[in-house]
Amino acid sequence: MDRSLNACLRSLEDYIKERLAVIKTTKANDGLEAAKKEYAKMTPMNFKIFLKQYRAEQAALYAGKGWNKILCPVKVSGDGCERCGAVPAAPGEDGHGGSRLLSCGKCRKVLYCNRACQKEDWKAHKPFCK
């Protein structure tokens, strides 16, 4: 199995373990309804956000091992901000005809809700920006 696939599988396993631990603790402390709310947070978009953070942590710990080149295997339907996952408001919801997401000025492949998210995400996005 190639290193990239192993890294993706390891990150997915860590994500699931982390979320299940939170759900178990929440259920024990706050009951079933609270645990269900935590379970609902296990979405593809939240995994994508987790992977970006995980990848950055691993790249810092293991420089030169290719962590900054690992692509997220999860495809998220719908367009949302690459960094925070925010989706644009529907026309009329914000009183201004709907907010638009901004695309990366270089590759035009990823979307951001604002310049602040784009700036914060640049270090993670830069290796993939073509």
Automatic annotation (TrEMBL):
InterPro entries linked: Znf_MYND (IPR002893)
Gene3D superfamilies: 6.10.140.2220
Record has Zinc-finger as a keyword: yes
Top-level division of the source organism's lineage: Eukaryota
Molecular function via GO: zinc ion binding
Domain MYND-type: start-end pairs: 81-129
Pfam families: zf-MYND (PF01753)
Keywords: Metal-binding, Zinc, Zinc-finger
Listed name of the protein: MYND-type domain-containing protein
Source organism: Saxophila tyrrhenica
Organism phylogeny: Eukaryota, Fungi, Dikarya, Ascomycota, Pezizomycotina
